[in-house]
Design a protein that fits this description.
The chain is mainly α. The chain folds into two domains: 34 residues; 104 residues, no CATH class. Helix 4 runs antiparallel to helix 5. About 14% of the residues have low confidence.
Length: 152
Amino acid sequence: MTGGVQTLFMRPYIWSFVGAGAVWLAAVAFTGGYGAGGMLTAALSLSVFTVVVGVGQMFVITLGPGNVDLSLPANIGLASAVAMKTMGGDDRMVIVGLAAAIACGLLVGLANYLLIWARRFRRVSSSSRSTSPMGAGFRSSRRPASPISPTF
């Protein structure tokens, strides 16, 4: 192996590309090469959800006290299920389903905020020194100092 290839395989991000390539090759082998347009369309359609989660996480970090909310994917799944059950397969109920999904997301977000506020979780900080099993940046305490004030 040459030095350049060896250096490339030492990079941690390369393995996600190798994995994606392996999945693509398996899909092409399984379908006999048919359906590449469908796979591309599905990948682009599902990438929207990744953007939604990323923007939601950005709002949580920048508008709040700096906490990271790991419940966003579960919240999206719950809101989707609530919307689908509310609509019941009726196309005329799309607006009602959308309103139910937004209300569900707002309720879960409010519950998360209230838990952070009540438990007084400190923000995630890479400069904190902790022996927590959650990692070096995680600090949680019931400090008696001033509570986290709402920022919205």
